[in-house]
From TrEMBL:
Protein name: Mannonate dehydratase
Lineage top rank: taxon: Bacteria
Pathway participation: Carbohydrate metabolism; pentose and glucuronate interconversion
Annotated family: Belongs to the mannonate dehydratase family.
Length: 358
């Protein structure tokens, strides 16, 4: 695939190097971030330039950023949101100046994603992240503490210590935010930023909720096809679109991921794909991450790739949430080896489909 990428957290936050990424066949993009910029602050031009220069010096491109995190005051709808939105707009301009084409973001309250086990043992001896409802306590702080304790010394995206230290305050701040209010606050945000995105040619790719269900009484507004239709209609623009994380949407067995891709890719509203598989543990929707191979998980990755091919997908894609294999002990879910295997598998599927249609 033309725009295959690999997520990288930067020199000081990742055990993987750019030279490692450059050696994965078929990878042309680094999906980058400025991991040390708190949500709500402007991303400085000099730091963006430094990141871009690093990536390009390694022979790769930087056209997708994940994530420019949205300050909770925007999601809650506090009076202070306008200043944070202005900061976000300035960041969009700064990123556009250095060639960024897509920003992957989410609108999840408090937690970007939740797992109950970061080292779930699989039959082959590898480990993966897992979600089992029975281990989800009523105390979100205990989940945050477990995430930090078991992350091999790495900070997990969406679980930054300064944010986790404010869980009790955040839970209180969100107590009156229901689905309708969160949706209205997303519309307010999109109405402010999308005209800027149109001017500077930067597409906003909203990431689905992970897992796609309500947790700790917090609303979730990107769980399925119907939610996507609503989000699309909040601000009609070819710059208001989606990241389709196959695993996140696939965590609800009612979601037909290939069909969702076909519908929204046909409208050119899919800007970014997270190509990953998951495997259901039971009939209650508990799951663990799996190898990308269709037979190893519960999703049909051939049908997913074919849905992209049939719609002449020209956007960006990367693997996500791999297993920890071959004694690797880095950031859980973000090791080198299994994600590199995933890339080879996805590219192999793409080549086979392409040749079959010549």
């Amino acid at each position: 695939m033309k725009n295959m990428g690999f997520r990288w957290y930067g020199d000081n936050n990742d055990s993987i190097t750019l030279s490692d990424i450059r050696q994965i066949p078929g990878v042309s993009q680094v999906v980058g971030t400025l991991f040390d910029i708190p949500a709500g602050e402007v991303w400085p031009k000099d730091q963006i330039k430094h990141l871009k220069d690093e990536v390009e010096a390694a022979g790769l491109k930087l056209e997708v950023i994940e994530s420019v995190n949205i300050h909770d005051d925007i999601k809650i709808g506090l009076p202070t949101r306008d200043q944070y939105i202005e900061n976000y707009i300035e960041t969009i301009r700064n990123l556009a100046e250095y060639g960024v084409k897509v920003i992957c973001y989410n609108f999840m309250p408090v937690f970007d994603w939740v797992r109950t086990d970061l080292h779930y043992l699989l039959p082959d001896g590898s480990t993966a992240m897992a979600f089992e409802q029975k281990y989800l306590t009523d105390d979100p702080q205990s989940i945050a503490d477990a995430m930090q304790k078991n992350s091999n010394g790495y900070v997990q995206a969406g679980w930054e210590p300064e944010r986790m230290a404010e869980i009790k305050r955040l839970m209180t701040a969100y107590k009156d935010v229901d689905t309708e209010k969160l949706t209205a606050n997303l519309k307010y945000f999109l109405d402010a930023i999308i005209p800027v995105c149109e001017k500077y040619d930067v597409r906003m790719a909203m990431h689905p909720d992970d897992p796609p269900r309500e947790l700790f009484g917090l609303p979730r507004i990107y769980k399925n096809r119907d939610d996507m239709l609503k989000i699309e209609q909040l601000h009609e623009s070819p710059y208001n679109g989606f990241t389709i994380c196959c695993g996140s949407l696939g965590e609800n067995p009612q979601n037909d991921v290939p069909a969702i891709i076909r519908e929204f890719a046909a409208k050119d509203r899919v800007f970014f794909i997270h190509g990953r598989n998951i495997k259901f543990i039971n009939d209650d929707g508990d799951f663990h991450e799996s190898a990308a191979l269709s037979s190893e998980g519960s999703l049909d990755m051939y049908e997913i790739m074919k849905a992209l091919y049939d719609n002449d997908y020209q956007g960006y894609i990367r693997p996500d949430h791999g297993r920890d294999i071959w004694h690797e002990n880095g950031r859980p879910g973000y090791g080198l080896y299994d994600r590199a295997l995933s890339i080879n598998y996805l590219n192999g599927l793409w080549e086979a489909i392409n040749k079959d249609h010549r």
